TrEMBL record:
The lineage of its organism: Bacteria, Pseudomonadati, Pseudomonadota, Gammaproteobacteria, Pseudomonadales. PANTHER family: CYCLIC NUCLEOTIDE PHOSPHODIESTERASE CBUA0032-RELATED (PTHR42988:SF2), PHOSPHOHYDROLASE (PTHR42988). This is 3',5'-cyclic AMP phosphodiesterase CpdA. GO terms for molecular function: hydrolase activity; metal ion binding. Residues 3-191 form the Calcineurin-like phosphoesterase domain. It holds the Pfam family Metallophos. It comes from Halopseudomonas litoralis. Belongs to the cyclic nucleotide phosphodiesterase class-III family. Keywords: Hydrolase, Iron, Metal-binding.
Amino acid sequence: MSRILHFSDLHFGTEDAAVAQALLQLAEQQQPDLYLLSGDITQRARRSQFAAARAFIQLLPAKPLLAVPGNHDLPLFNLPLRMLNPYGNYRRVFGNELEPEFERDDLLVVGVNTTRAGRHKDGEVSAEQIQRVAQRLQRAHADQLRVVMLHHPIRAVEESDVSNLLIGREQAVPSWIDAGVDLLLGGHIHLPYVVPLQGNPDQQAWAIQAGTGISQRVRGNIPNSVNLIEHDAHDRQRRCQITRWDYASADKRFIPVETTELQLSGSANA
């Protein structure tokens, strides 16, 4: 079984120390196989904030971690740096690859960089990115959980979030569903939810949003939250569930609040 801890929008520079400690305790308790961090790791892309993020990551139980940048991970006020080297501070911590991949027998994760130096907060996906991801998904194995991780959401459940949706999603989402994606992970809006995405009659995928992991910049009365994804494949029968964990301030720990069983498509790429 694969166990994946998905968190997003840590916004170092605005982090709550008690919540950060509770997230470390959750990771120690659950022992995930992989951490997925879907952007907005810092508040203002400063070296000190990325250093704080690095220190936090080093305290996690040692497992692979994949990250993609969010719009807050590009300098906002330092315009020369934003134009000439927008990912410089990000790369010092997470390396040069802005669209990392992770693969093992039961899991494929494809990262997509949806940030653009010329945009303040909106995300965008290009035709080249859409094609690259689709081709990679088509090469996946039948038993693999196929995950695409980006920062910006591709579906909204609140009308106020429609303006935050990924530019190019109308082309990307159908293409990736047809190519066999199971889960599309995102962040950005600090609102956790799980919604189905319908493709062809025999293709089923899910949009999964994470809230803000440890930041004080919570949305309304929604607490800090993260997602635990569990997947098992045997004889080409795949089972997947996602549990949302919210921070309970009274207990100073994350607690499970909702588990969703995800219906996955059959072995489309067998």
